[in-house]
């Protein structure tokens, strides 16, 4: 069940991303009144001519040829080509198979994103040519919810995420109900209390007999690292279900800091430095107490 919920999360993110990617797409099946005047954010369509003869006449800038062109896309493309500087027209190439015109190996757009350095504004002639060019949408600079083609996909993605979140939350609560305790049979609070009490006892022994207790302290800290500390880490599912991610992060921040101090105490004990061992144990005890206090706060639940 959890696997399916995670799959739903991944699928929903993909679906939502696809919908969001179309936020600035304007479908060309909309009425001209909703499209004329919009500024393009990307090139639209490709210049395709009906024959190589038409291409050669465009390359020679024979304006009289325009009157014989019937297809709006071909006529507008022809008009675009004869408007190019002569040095650019001389470098044009016509692909006989696709009938696309290229410049320096790159297909020429039917309607470029910019005109004279400014964003191109759509007009009725451009729209007629683009539709004839089989262009289904153009990318524009302004967002408008009513013309957003992918809004249904986006909201499906959002709905999928919400459903997945509810499923994961329900699974977490069910897991919390089925096992109120962590992996070793102890509740997270009990583990923290046990860790804190152990640290307090070790510090007391160290104060009573600094050098004689270092070996015992090192041994007990090793047990804490492999048992109580690890058991608390394994209780993360229970903690997330109870506290949420924010509360869990707050508890684990204190716990991780305490764990580092315990590791330093072990190293200091191994080096025979009683004073440093005691200081690390004291800081670890304080941090574990803060983690326990955060875990027990009603606002964290």
Give a brief outline of the structure.
This protein has helices at residues 2-21, 32-35, 52-59, 72-82, 86-89, 124-132, 151-178, 188-208, 214-226, 228-234, 236-270, 274-296; strands spanning 25-27, 44-46, 92-94, 101-103, 106-107, 109-111, 114-115, 118-119, 137-139.
Task: Explain this structure.
This protein has three domains: 1-22 and 150-178; 27-138, no CATH class; 181-300, Four Helix Bundle (Hemerythrin (Met), subunit A). The chain has helices spanning 2-21, 32-35, 52-59, 72-82, 86-89, 124-132, 151-178, 188-208, 214-226, 228-234, 236-270, 274-296, and strands spanning 25-27, 44-46, 92-94, 101-103, 106-107, 109-111, 114-115, 118-119, 137-139. The chain is elongated, with a radius of gyration of 35 Å. It starts with a helix and ends in a 5-residue tail after the last helix. The strands form four sheets. A three-stranded antiparallel beta sheet has the order 3-4-5, with helices on one face. A two-stranded antiparallel ribbon has the order 1-9. A hairpin with a 6-residue loop joins strand 3 and strand 4. The protein is mainly α and 301 residues long. Helices cover 61% and strands 8% of the residues. Helix 1 runs antiparallel to helix 7 (151-178) and helix 3 runs parallel beside helix 4. It contains twelve helices and nine strands. The mean pLDDT is 88.
């Amino acid at each position: 069940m959890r696997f399916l919920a995670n799959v739903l999360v991944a699928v929903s993110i993909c679906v939502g991303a696809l919908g969001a990617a179309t936020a600035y797409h304007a479908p060309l099946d909309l009425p001209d009144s909703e499209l004329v005047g919009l500024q393009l954010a990307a090139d639209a369509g490709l210049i395709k001519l009906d024959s190589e003869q038409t291409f050669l006449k465009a390359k020679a800038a024979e304006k009289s040829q325009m009157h014989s062109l019937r297809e709006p896309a071909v006529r507008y493309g022809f008009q675009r080509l004869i408007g190019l500087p002569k040095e650019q027209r001389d470098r044009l190439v016509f692909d006989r198979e696709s009938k696309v015109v290229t410049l320096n190996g790159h297909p020429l757009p039917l309607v470029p994103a910019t005109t004279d350095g400014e964003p191109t504004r759509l007009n009725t002639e451009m729209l007629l040519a683009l539709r004839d060019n089989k262009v289904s949408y153009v990318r524009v600079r302004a967002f408008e919810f009513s013309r957003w083609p992918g809004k249904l996909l986006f909201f499906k993605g959002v709905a999928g995420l919400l459903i997945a979140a509810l499923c994961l939350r329900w699974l977490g609560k069910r897991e919390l109900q089925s096992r109120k305790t962590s992996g070793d049979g102890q509740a997270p609070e009990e583990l923290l209390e046990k860790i804190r009490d152990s640290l307090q006892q070790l510090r007391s022994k160290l104060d009573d007999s600094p050098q004689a207790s270092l070996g015992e302290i090192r041994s007990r800290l090793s047990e804490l690292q492999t048992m109580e500390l690890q058991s608390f880490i394994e209780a993360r599912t229970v903690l997330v279900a109870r506290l949420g991610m924010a509360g869990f992060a707050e508890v684990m921040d204190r716990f991780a800091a305490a764990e580092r101090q315990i590791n330093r105490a072990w190293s200091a004990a191994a080096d025979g430095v009683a004073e440093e061992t005691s200081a690390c144990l004291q800081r670890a005890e304080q941090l574990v107490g803060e983690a326990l206090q955060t875990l027990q706060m009603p606002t964290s639940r």
